[in-house]
Design brief:
By secondary structure, the chain is an alpha/beta fold. It has a seven-stranded mixed sheet, sandwiched between helices. The structure holds pyridoxal-5'-phosphate. The site of pyridoxal-5'-phosphate (PLP) has 12 residues, from α3.
Length: 354
């Protein structure tokens, strides 16, 4: 029995409600289901319908299941980028997206900003703006007002948003952008190995203009299969099934959003008062609600991490530039109040003598 409590920001704690659905999937033969069968189509319809309802995705947006957020970076670069895209980022995931895009389109532009700053919101002449709504590497986030301003300031540009570590945790306003994606091993609290890709009608029109058909995962190909509630290749049927069963069991997203916001402000107040560690992000308005980044010197960090292991608590390691200077706490909805209390007690005692 694994009794480690995971605060890792992905892969992260899976909702305990998933366990009976895993067994059910086996017993119902879903693990061996042919993905061109009517039974698969029914499950796919249920999952997509549940997703649209529970996250308030606009009716005319398309929802597709792909393999990962990383694949979404590739799909956007292949199928939605005419010559170049503009990447606005302050951390490692936004930068990785830019790096992948740049390999296909050397003229891609990077607009970097600091973790305690709001990003610029007007990008001149660009046809595609790429934003990381929740930067998992450093615990910063863009709020919906910022996305709205970006929308207003950039005419006809397509906007693509990486919401991998916030979707299904906080309430997103999907009308504010054209492409959204997230892999499911973060706030969805599902097993790793699948991502959700969401596209506005304008994104699909852009894909038609660009007309990329060179890849198995060209967006037009994904969309054409999606129109028939199918997938281009054998998908992660188990995860699609788990999503179809789990989402209807969870509270409404506005309820989850409220819990996440309350817990985030609790974490920020609580950590702000401890000895020997600080919040990585000093400016409260740029802090993430779902990933809390904590700064400490390397020695303190090693001590806290090893004590945490002894106590069966898994903290997120630092990431990118902050690898040896920070740890991260996932504030994802699958985590329970009891687990949060245990981590608070642990942090209180481990920092007492720092
Ligand atoms: C985890 C993460 C990714 C990568 O997700 P994969 O499923 O491993 O491809 C991309 N972007 C952000 C913001 C993430 O948190």
């Amino acid at each position: 029995m694994n009794n480690t409590i995971s605060f890792y920001p992905g892969p992260s704690k899976v909702y305990p409600q998933v366990l009976p659905f895993l067994q059910e999937a086996y017993l119902k033969g879903i693990l061996s289901l042919n993905h061109r069968s009517r039974e698969f189509t029914a499950i796919n319809i249920e999952a997509i319908t549940a997703l649209k309802q529970s996250l308030y995705i606009p009716d005319d947006y398309g929802v597709y299941f792909v393999s990962s957020a990383t694949e979404c970076w590739e799909i956007i670069a292949q199928s939605l980028t005419a010559e170049s895209s503009t990447h606005v980022f302050n951390g490692a995931f936004g930068k990785k997206w830019f790096d992948y895009a740049q390999r296909l389109h050397p003229e891609c532009k990077a607009v970097e900003f600091g973790i305690d700053e709001l990003p610029p919101t007007a990008f001149g002449n660009t046809s595609l703006i790429c934003l990381t709504q929740n930067e998992t590497s450093n615990g910063t986030a863009l709020d919906m007002n910022t996305l709205k301003t970006v929308r207003e300031n950039n005419g006809d540009a397509l906007i693509a948003v990486d919401a991998t570590s916030s979707m299904a945790g906080i309430q997103l306003e999907f009308e504010l952008a054209d492409v959204w994606y997230a892999s499911v091993q973060k706030c969805f609290g599902l097993p790793a190995g699948m991502a959700v890709l969401i596209c506005s009608p304008k994104a699909i029109e852009r894909a038609e203009d660009i007309d990329d058909n060179k890849h198995y995962n060209s967006l037009l190909n994904i969309h054409a299969n999606g129109e028939k509630w199918q997938t281009t290749h054998t998908p992660n049927t188990l995860n699609i099934y788990l999503m179809s069963r789990l989402l209807p069991e969870l509270p409404e997203i506005e309820v989850t959003n409220e819990i996440i916001e309350e817990r985030a402000s609790m974490w920020y107040d609580f950590i702000g008062q401890l000895n020997g560690i600080q919040l990585l992000v000093k400016e409260s308005t740029t802090r993430s609600k779902t990933v809390i980044a904590v700064e400490a010197d390397t020695e303190t960090l090693e001590y806290i991490k090893s004590e945490a292991r002894e106590n069966n608590i898994l903290l997120g390691r630092g990431y990118g530039d902050w690898l040896h200077k920070s740890f991260r706490i996932a504030n994802f909805p699958a985590i329970s109040d009891i687990e949060i209390t245990m981590l608070k007690e642990f942090l209180t005692s481990v920092t007492k003598n720092l």
